[in-house]
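Residues determine shape. Next comes a sample protein:
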Amino acid sequence: MDQSPFTDGLTKKILYAGKCDVPDFKDGSKVIFHFQTQTIDKDGELKDIIDDSKKINRPMEIILGKQFKMPIWEECLKSMRTEEVAEFRVEKNLVDAYPLVSKSFREFAGISQNTKKGHCCGMMAYAEGVGHSDLDNLIRLPSDLAFTLELLKVELPGEYEKESWSMEPEEKLKSIPELKNIGNELYKNNQYEEAGKKYAEALGRLEQLLLREKPGDEEWVALDNLKIPILLNYAQCKLHQKDYYPVIEYTTQVLDKDKSKWGNVKALYRRAKAYVGTWDLEPAQEDFSKVSELDPSFEKIVQKELKNIKALQKQKDDEMKSKLLGKV
C-alpha cells in the first residue's frame, strides 16, 4: 500500500492487513507486539536497525493508559488489527524517549550486558548515556525513526494475570496473601522450588510497597511484619533444596524483626539446620540450645540434633588430623 498521512509527524504504511476488526483497546488492556526500529536519514531512507524483538523472539508488552514513556506507540497500535504488520515513520520530536524505552526493553529481554541500571531520566540520559553506544548516539544525534509493528494480541483487563509493575498499590497488597496461599499449596505437594518462587514474588511486592512508606511509620511497620511468615516459609523451601545460605539470611531477618516465641523458635531451628548444612557447627549448636530454652517441647528433637553435631564435629576433627599428619 502507498504511504499515507496518519497524524502530525506520523505516517503509516500497512505491510500486511491482518485479521478481524480493530480490537477493543480499553485502558488497562495488555498489548503484545513485535517491533523493529530503524533510523531514517535526511533523504528519507531507512538506515540502521536499532532493535528487533522478532529476531530475539521476545515480544514487547505494554498496558494501555499506564503513562507509557512513548505514547506515540499507543496511538500506532490502536490503529491496527490483530496480526497486522505496519510501518510507522515518526518524526524525532515524538520519539525522544525511545532510548529509555529501548534500554528498558533490553533489560526485560535479558540482552543488556554491563549497562547502567536503576532510575534514569531524560536529562541524566543525555548527560551520562544509558550504557548502550547506539542508544547514546541516538540521544545526542536525534533521528526520525521507523517502527515496523506486528500486533500479536490484545488482552482486555481481567483476561490476564497482572504483573507487579502494572498493579496499583491496593492490588499488590491484595495479591500478597493470595501468592502466599498458592505457595503453601505447592509446598504441601513437595513442589519446593515452585513454592519458593511464589514466596519470593510476594516478598518482592511487599518491598515495592515498603518503598512508598516512611520507615518506622505505622503503615511501614504493618507491611514489614507481613514479611515474617513469608520469609519463614521461603527459608523452609530453601532448606529442603539444600540452599543453606539464603536460609541463614532469611531466618536472621526474621529474628531481627520478630521477638515472639513462635517466630524465634521456627527461625532459630531452621537457621540451626542451615548452619549444620554449611558445617558451621558452633552457631548451629547455639541456635539449637536456644530453641530448647524457648520451647521445652523441642527438647528431644534438639538433643538428637546436638548428638548429630557432636558426631559431625568429631568427623571434622578427624579429617583435620589426617590432613595435618599427611603434611608431617
Observations:
- The mean pLDDT is 85.
- The two ends are 87 Å apart (CA to CA).
- The first helix runs from residue 71 to 77.
